[in-house]
Write a structure and sequence with these properties.
single chain, 106 residues, mainly alpha, 6 helices, globular
């Protein structure tokens, strides 16, 4: 019996809902750039760390409050955008959990 292939962080993210948003957030976080996407990565950091995608440092910010502030500074309805982004993040997290549980089953 062949061992199950190792899934890399890149493979784990591939095709998940919100993939582009999370990839941008990871890049921004790595570069020290505060962005909407980096706030979302910070919110998801416990799950991303458990998946081995992110090395969790001490939280740098109150991510939810910072996210809302950034959305308030841009055009549009901050409340609706905030809720929409958190729903997309939730979908990403559930899909990531599902992919991880499937990988562990092999």
């Amino acid at each position: 019996m062949n061992p199950a292939p190792t899934i890399t962080g890149h493979d784990l993210l591939s095709g998940l809902p919100g993939e582009a948003m999370i990839r941008k957030g990871l890049s921004d976080r790595c570069d020290g750039c505060l962005s909407i996407e980096s706030c979302l990565v910070e919110i998801a950091s416990p799950r991303l760390a458990r998946a081995g995608i992110l090395h969790r440092d001490a939280p740098v910010m109150e991510a939810e409050l910072t996210l809302y502030r950034l959305l308030s500074e841009s055009a549009g309805d901050a409340f609706s955008r905030y809720n929409s982004l958190l729903r997309e993040l939730s979908s990403f997290e559930h899909a990531l959990d599902h992919r991880l549980s499937k990988a562990k089953a092999f």
